Amino acid sequence: QVWPFGVQGAVQQLLRKRARAMGKKRRRDEEEAEAEGEAPPSAEAVDVGNKKNKQKGVVHVQDLSDSDLKEREVELQETLRKARLNQGNLRGDPPATNRILWQRQVTYANNAVHRAEQAYGEVRREIERRRFKK
C-alpha cells in the first residue's frame, strides 16, 4: 500500500523508535555508545537495578544483628496484629451503599495482612535458622 506525502516513512520511523524504547535503559545506552564509537558506560555508572532499594532503605533480615532481629520481630508482630484487627473490622458488615469503595478497602486490608505475614514469617525463619546454626 502506498501512502501519500511520505507517511509510510514517518510511520516506519515511529515504529523503530518505539521498538528501541522497549529495551532496558542500560542496553539502549550501550547501543547508543557503540553507535557513536565510544566505550559503553560501566555498570556502576548506570545503576538501575538498585535504585528502588536505595530509595526505600531496604535492610535484609540476614544483615541484622540478633538484638535488632528480636526488635524487628516485636515490631512486625504488632504490625500484623493491627492489620488483622483492621481487616476484621472492615469485613464485619458490608454497607448497603457504596459497596465498591468498601470492597476496595477490604482488598487493601487483605494485602496489608498478607505483607505483614510475609515480613513476620521471614523474620521468624531467620531466627529459627540462626537458632539451629549455633
Describe this structure in words.
With 134 residues, this protein is an all-alpha fold. It is built from 5 helices and no strands. It is 70% helix and 0% strand.
Write out key terms for the chains shown.
single chain; 134 residues; mainly alpha; 70% helix
Question: In brief, what are we looking at here?
Answer:
This protein is mostly helical and 134 residues long. The chain contains 5 helices and no strands.
Show the helix and strand layout.
Blueprint: H1 7-21, H2 25-36, H3 51-56, H4 66-91, H5 99-133
Helix pairs in contact: 4-5
Low-pLDDT runs: none
User: What string, H for helix and E for strand, traces the elements in order?
Assistant: HHHHH
| Cα-to-Cα separation, first versus last residue | 74 Å
**What fraction of residues sit in β-strands?**
under 5%
Overall, the morphology is: flat
Q: Output mean pLDDT.
A: 77
Radius of gyration using CA atoms only: 26 Å
Helix fraction? over 70%
Number of helices: 5
SS-based class: mainly alpha
Extended strand count: 0
Largest sheet: none
